[in-house]
What we know:
By secondary structure, this protein is mainly alpha-helical.
Amino acid sequence: MLSANDQEIEVRAAAIKGLGRRADPRSFGTLLQKLNETNVSLRVLAIDALSKFKDKNVGDIMINLLSEKNLEIVMAAMDALGNLGESKAEGPLIQFLSHQDHRVRGRAALALGSLKD
């Protein structure tokens, strides 16, 4: 997991993607730390990687990310919530259906369509 902390962004990106593909519970903490990266692209990759885990906390983590200022992070969290089928995200996602940015509205609608009943 040292490569997830490499100085080269490309190496960190590849490591984050790999950790997501494996979804090994031992890498969960490392991926959580990657949510604090300064590079938005790496944060988006970490969100995607975490969405592949079956951990009960992932949904809450993604819902909390909906309050981020950066729309790329918000949209990645929406995608993750849709992939997870996280039904408790319905209320927070509905609020984005009237967002000024059409991309955000579209992602919210897609995520809502994927939620479990």
